[in-house]
From TrEMBL:
Domain of life: Bacteria
Pfam families: ParD_like
Protein name in the entry: ParD-like antitoxin of type II toxin-antitoxin system
InterPro entries: ParD-like (IPR021831)
Length: 72
């Protein structure tokens, strides 16, 4: 359920170049940062890169982009 929230102008300005570089809207970029921050707080022993890889993996599973692992 979307809701309207007020964000600082500084946060919005900080997000603009990242959003453009990652082909996201500014709100989606801020949402991504919020998700990553939440996951980082829940997993303080993992690196940001590992957390980003996990988020990408979750999205790959959602769209059915799976390859079975072959042992040996």
């Amino acid at each position: 359920m979307p809701i309207a929230i007020k964000l600082s102008d500084l946060l919005i300005e900080d997000a603009k170049p990242y959003a453009q570089a990652m082909h996201r809207s500014v709100p989606k970029q801020i949402e991504y940062w919020a998700r990553l921050g939440k996951v980082a707080e829940e997993n303080p022993d993992l690196t940001v890169q590992m957390l980003q890889d996990m988020l990408v993996s979750i999205e790959e599973v959602k769209v059915g982009n799976l390859n079975p692992y072959k042992f040996g």
